[in-house]
User: Fold these one by one.
Assistant:
Number 1:
Amino acid sequence: MPKKDQGVSNNRFRIIPRTLLFITRGNRLLLIKGNPEKRIWANLYNGIGGHIEKGEDVLSAARRELKEETGLEAVHLWLCGIVMIDAGEETGIGLFVFRGETDQLTVINSTEGSLEWIPVDQLNKYPLVEDLPVLIPKVFSVNANDEIFYARYWYDENDHLRIDFSN
């Protein structure tokens, strides 16, 4: 199909594509504590990830973000889910959520923040980004060969985040 027939139009809902990765080592989860100067999620713990750049596929972008933010390279990643985020604008976010496992312990902090291997059973003691208490259990429920989950995030009239999983 020629590109003129792809249906790209400014009057359609558009998404900014991003990746989010959750890497485990045994019973520990690698999270990044946002740099205190960050505009968003400063001093909060989040998964690894970021924007998908033009010319990248989803998996290549996930691997690039993992290397940039942690120094990790040889990690088997699998897609766990896709989240569509509607922030009430014409452009939303398409979030591709990955999980991976590694035996490597050494990671390298980036300008994004400091990395910590956190025991999974201790996550509730850390200040997490708002959606992670709901998202992480869903991610951990998906094994490498399982069907992925689908979710939709949106904000209600009081600007509270709402989350709906399709399966």
Number 2:
Amino acid sequence: MKKKLVGIFAVLTMTAALLTGCGSSDEATGEDLLSQIQERGTINIAMEGNWAPWTYEDEQGNLVGFEVEVAGEVAKKLGVEPNFVTGEWDGLLAGVQTGRYDIMANGVGYTEERSKAYYYSDFYAFNRTVLVVRGDNDDIKSMEDLAGKTTCNSANSTYQLLAESYGATVKDVESLDGTIEELTAGRVDATLNAEVSINDYMKEQPDVDIKVAAYDPEVEKVGMIMPYGESSESLRKAVNQALAEMREDGTLSKISNKYFGMDITSED
């Protein structure tokens, strides 16, 4: 399965984003974001494009995945065309904060810190995080065993923050393929990722010698994020309305089962 980066790469850094502060998109335009989107007829949707089965390239080079279909359906309900833009995780976060992208749909887990920098949509996916090690590693059996160990994940991801909270040193890696390569080569001790992503990887790459050592007890709540501020209020309401309709008519569940083989759109 191809998991290459596609499209336009975000060049902004998280440091730059933090310097802009919250609500930079509002201050720059002073115009309602939903009105801007509807006037141009497109909504700019940020995602990595290399994280199956959430967002990735299929064998024909098409951008596909759970987030691609969910965001595409949301765009349809808003009456506009989706413009998917791919790049590195921290650059995408910065691009949303500065208004370069209208929304980001990429398994964005909720954190209190992020909620102060972005508007979240209602949650539409609930994700379990797994701790993954090499098949011959019997030393790491719990999250607490990460203390003093080295892991790898995308910079500023919830997986990086979680690993650090347990005392691990985290090495930045841009893709799941790169993460597993670092792990199997012995350059890191472990990695954290979405259970559904690891299940998909192990199904596609059955000869890779890795295993799940533990599960994080907390369930990660996933929503789309958009620029913080009053100009995004109407967009957030419209996105939430679209998600509510998709939940009610079974669209969310159908897309989840298509890519994950299970329904992760309910907290239950």
Number 3:
Amino acid sequence: MKPYIRRAQYYETDKMGIIHHANYIHWMEEARIDFLDQLGWSFDKLEQMGVSSPVLAVRCSYKKPTRFPEQVAVRVRLAAYRGVRMTIAYRMENEAGETVFEGESDHCFLDAAGAPARLRRVLPEFDAALCGLLESGE
């Protein structure tokens, strides 16, 4: 999977001139959307097929500050997948290759009625793609 490249914007900075910590959560979501697009399972496609994937939890660890107009590469990998739930890991690196952020987000899969959706039954091709990623370590 290719990393998601994100340039820090001036409006994202705080009074100290660094990117405000809340923006990293937005960057995680942008990278997750890109990750699913690269898999061929965009948010739009999943929702059209009646499956949503809400966030259950987010964990963050800030390593180094990011400033405007620095660019970060967000590396995304599937850390866990259990049919109805998944954990995505994120590592953000600056242009010097230094880790500036590490985090994880937990998600579940729901059907159109809001009930848990076991992907093996409702979207077996997507289930196979996620299982393949987990096996490959990507």
